[in-house]
Amino acid sequence: MQNENLANWLPRLAPHGGPRFLQIADALQAAMVDGSLKPGDRLPPQRQLAEQLNVDLTTITRAYDEARRRNLLEGRGARGTYVAAPKVELTSILDLSMNTPPPPDGVDFDDMLKQGLSQVLMRADNELLMTYHLAGGSDSDRKAGAQWLAPMFGPLDAREVLVCPGAQAAIAALILALTKPGDIILAEPASYPGLRAAATQFGRRIIAVDADQHGMVPDMLEAACRQHQPGLVFLNPTLQNPTAITIPERRRKELADIARRCNVRIVEDDPYWLLAEAPPPPIATFAPQQVYYIATLSKCLTPGLRVAFVLIRDPHERERFLAALRSFALMVAPLTAALATQWIVDGSAGGLMAGVRKEARLRHRMARDILAGRYSGAGDGLHVWLELPAYWTPAQLARAADSAGIAVTPAEAFATGGASVNAIRISLGSIKDRGRLQAGLQRLSQLLARGPESFSAAVV
To answer: Which terminal Cβ of the chain has fewer Cβ within 10 Å, N or C?
Structure first.
């Protein structure tokens, strides 16, 4: 590209427009979209561009690195840096099946990861990061957990907070600690699949308790407790997976009262509380001795951390839980636990979560617009529970969607018993690019409108 054409794409760096290197990378991407830059155009040397924009060389280096990460640029050795040809997308699957946090706009996750790990390695004894630790987390990790749970509970005694390698490990350990083979676990008719997987593996049986538009029905729970004498009750009360229902405060109190009267323990798996708009207090605030509270970072920050916090008030019950956890997961990986603690303490975790929450709400608005009258989400969280028209079954639609290059999760994946539900879950975070998410939702909307009679799989 000739120097006289630089003005066609050079950004005007805004003082409050976010990191400068991201502004430059965004300007490159915008110029490729509007045609100011074309595949094969040569970009100026980094030092020259730094002088042109009056920034330091490091900023330009980071901008070019970010542009390469987005597949916008390619290096050709001594010949320089060039605008890349569009990358051919070899995989056509648009994944609406996996509940992961969406990538937040304006958050440089790579830089956040590098900075966090740098701080951990600078402040921690590296030998301690690479050796065995007792289950439950270090004192600093537990204090970070108490800080993370403070929006839900206020100030906590850090000794009551245990650190686990993810919510699934916490659920499995609670099943082992609180129940015995053959025991019954009560859950809603559609519930987190990981519960069913763990219960089946350990020889426990799940019985569904009826739910309505406000979650598990209190009278039905009390009747089931008296009939079955369950080992525990499993609830996911905020933006429930998969139905996206949030149990209102009054009903949470009723469920807590039943747990006390029937002397039954509740596992409150609450991964989406911090993503919700003004959520009610956790059930554990109303029955602290009956309820075991789980909050994972996987749904608010990133699954790769594999860190969850479990609040257990009774010291004897904490020891039972840790003994069960140690039988299959000795500890959280010390390095990732230290990184989670660093991010919580320095505020990076809160900033990332705020970005995830903002991005998730934007994506819900997109889903509401595209799915029109079929959308029944809560407007926040990571997923939508989409009830289907009568002419589709969940399995039929999942197969048709797969043939159309879309992955969704049918209701059967969440069933714990009771009447079948004609619905699918759509996850809004697993597709990084909003444009591809929009394309997936539009394809799905077209499938819903056409019906199965117009769908036929190709035969080859």
So the answer is: C
CB 160 within 8 A of CB 311: yes
Distances (CA, A) of 312 to 94, 285, 289, 318, 331: 40, 12, 8, 6, 17
C-alpha span between 176 and 403 (Å, rounded): 40
Report whether 424 contacts 395 (CB < 8 A).
no
The CATH number of 109-347 is 3.40.640.10
Confirm whether pTM is higher than 0.90.
no
Count of beta carbons in the 10 Å neighbourhood of residue 155: 9
The matching CATH number, chosen from 3.50.50.60, 3.60.110.10, 3.90.1150.10, 3.40.50.11260, for 94-106+349-454 is: 3.90.1150.10
**Helix, strand, coil percentages in the chain from 3-state DSSP, rounded to 5:** 50, 15, 40
Buried/exposed 72-109: b ≥16 CB within 10 Å, e otherwise: bbeeeeeeebbbbeeeeeeeeebbbbebbbbbbeebbe
Q: Classify domain 3-83 at the CATH topology level.
A: Arc Repressor Mutant, subunit A (1.10.10)
